[in-house]
Amino acid sequence: MNVAASGHESAVARTLRFAALSATVLVLALIVRWVIVAPSTARIVAGSILALPFALGAPFLYARRRRSYAWLTLALSPPLVLGLMEAVADPAARAWSWLFVFVLLALFVVLVAYLRATRSSSQP
């Protein structure tokens, strides 16, 4: 169900939507930072692939499409693997990678919280 179609959104849902949008933009910025630090063809391609779901999903998050919140939780897996791999493999990138993992986990929590806050009362 589209929350925008119902015509109202609670203050909690509005706050969670803003937090999800902010965290999505932060994830995009961290991916761009990862690419810019040591640019190579492989990093540009990988960064583009990792950023694509977030860039495509942000307008739908703003439009309050619940399905976008649901599928974006699945899109967090590849960047999470990248962040954990960088934390273990590259000591110079540990600060960035742990920040990246923290932001991804925070985004996951916010996305799930939004889905729970906007679920229909008719569902069990």
Structure description:
- With 124 residues, this protein is mainly alpha-helical.
- It has one domain.
- The protein is 81% helix and 0% strand.
- The protein has helices at residues 3-6, 11-37, 41-62, 66-75, 77-89, 94-117.
- The radius of gyration is 16 Å and the shape is elongated.
- The chain starts with a helix and ends in a 7-residue tail after the last helix.
- The model has no long low-confidence stretch (mean pLDDT 88).
The best one-word shape is elongated
Question: How many domains would you count in the coordinates?
Answer: 1
The gyration radius over C-alpha positions equals 16 Å
Q: What does the largest sheet look like?
A: none
Give the rounded overall mean pLDDT.
88
Question: Given the structure, what is the number of helices?
Answer: 6
Order of secondary-structure elements: HHHHHH
SS-derived structural category: mainly alpha
Beta-strand segment tally: 0
Spatial gap, N to C terminus:
15 Å
**Low-confidence spans:** none
What fraction strand?
Answer: under 5%
Helix content: over 70%
